[in-house]
């Protein structure tokens, strides 16, 4: 482990810590007497008869814990669905699965809907929506089954579609997504607490926007299915076509009365993590540069651009003089091109692709998913340099990349980053260290 690897990993760790609910809730929420302030907006708790916490996502459990620590007995009840439950007394936590929804998540979502249906004009709902909520707040629409949602999820995850495209499909197969939970909660006051895991921080895409107006349509969802030649279950296709033909109600848009008492608060995003990574680099004496938090596209191709910039800095001092640390974020994708993919995800594919490209010493490339789970494996990501793939192993490394088995390869050469579930999710974070 060189100094460059160690610094890259410290930068990534700082990003995770900065976006963790323990940090974010304490920084962005405060309670003064009976006044709850969320990101600068005040809510008079004494004007409500009940305070209810609901929501879902990878970080929903840790957010719930921090809300209880802040509000204590001001919270009357609540339910959140997460894949990482924590200890709470007033807020029930249901353990679901991510990224493929399961039966317990469906049951937990039913509990969320029950609480919201019981809310009235004297209820304040604190709605927690974090990355992963698309899978963790599942409610099959109409006659659809959980199996239909799971098969659809598998197709979307392997397609290479963007998160916006994926969620356009998910919204129109769901009874919760695309603003439908806001309709259930009306006329309650809803304060939505958002932890963004999407490029651009579009609230309608974060967790498929259960409390946010939706401007996509059944027709849009069908267009995504056609664009990526998705092999969706017959029931899913029939439901989308029936919706396009007017047989199902569209997701509510911004003019719907359900949103009159809904306010959104973006508490953390990829920028939160990226800024923390930059601070660590600066403190270590490196020139920090944030290139973009909107990197997207195929992971293996995005990695080549990162390598190119790192090598340019090393060779010419452009765009910054070394020693330097480049930080990027966003959400790259993987288009699965084999019937039997191995283990890995966008960040391990990004790292392995970078390792195959690097031919300059003193350059380290590191990438991870801030939720600690990259794709279908247990690793968060990896850090690599020009020596990660030895010349005699290049063919084996390329085969691992082509068969989407990057995590297995990187785990075998001590390049892997294994954080376990982190308790947050603000998308992917990547660092290039140039000595």
UniProtKB/TrEMBL annotation:
Source species, domain of life: Archaea
Molecular function GO terms recorded: glycerate kinase activity
Domain MOFRL: 325-428
Cellular component terms per the entry's GO annotation: cytoplasm
InterPro entries reported for this sequence: GK-like_C_sf (IPR037035), GK_N_sf (IPR038614), MOFRL (IPR007835), MOFRL_assoc_dom (IPR025286), MOFRL_protein (IPR039760)
Residues of the MOFRL-associated domain: 8-240
Name of this protein: DUF4147 domain-containing protein
